[in-house]
Amino acid sequence: MGEDQTRLSSAELEELCLKQNIIIERNDPFNNSKIYLPNIEKINKMIREFDFLVDGSSRGKAVNEISKIERFLYDNEENADIRSKFLATYYSNASMYIENHRRLLEDKRSENWKYLFVNYFKMEDIYNYFNKKSSASDFFKDYSIFNDLIDLTYNVKLMEYLRSQVELEIPIDNDTDLPVKIEESNLKLVIINELGLIDKLKNQISENTLPNLARFLTALCYEDPSNWRDVLLKLKNLNLQNDKDLLTELNLNKAHEIMSLFGIELEKE
Q: Which among 202, 192, 263 has a CA at the least distance from the CA of 223?
């Protein structure tokens, strides 16, 4: 779907996309033929607008729904049973929706999202996007992936709120509230970075900074000592927003969720 455009033949479409640098031409060495690949640097503009609009729309929906929930909880402040059942219903519905769309959520949070993104559109769609006359929101609204992600992101934001409310309504048994065990080494590094410790340690290690920091973090996280060079590579790519950068949306969400379990709330900029 999308905006109405003059129908182009496949050859015409390829030629126009090549001229506008939307796709790039490569030779396939296996069968000695030409192949056309999306130019990710160009597509990034489309992805940024898409993600921005999804986040804005889902945030607006979540804010409105949370306001309704807050009003209900306030009106029933003296009735704990009604409040608990009300929250449980919301929590169950949001949780079920997220689980039913788990594959899409994993795609969106994946480090490879920018490559997966183009698979939801035909070449003609992408060409039409870069030659649209209306706004990006008008363009995307006819695509199911756009509307599906708005609903999914809305439920994720709603779940973040509901999780905190449920914890307030349902007391935790301290005898059985065991701390989580963090197995994933990448997640440990993301948490350490989010706490500001990596920057602090960089300032305190005056010689051979990154290698010494990598060795220290390898020991601190109970990793195999021989893996310190892998840790060094990860440190070098932090905040570079490339394929090796650990600070992906998925890792950051996991890290913040784990920290919140221990009452650690980072200050919002």
A: 192
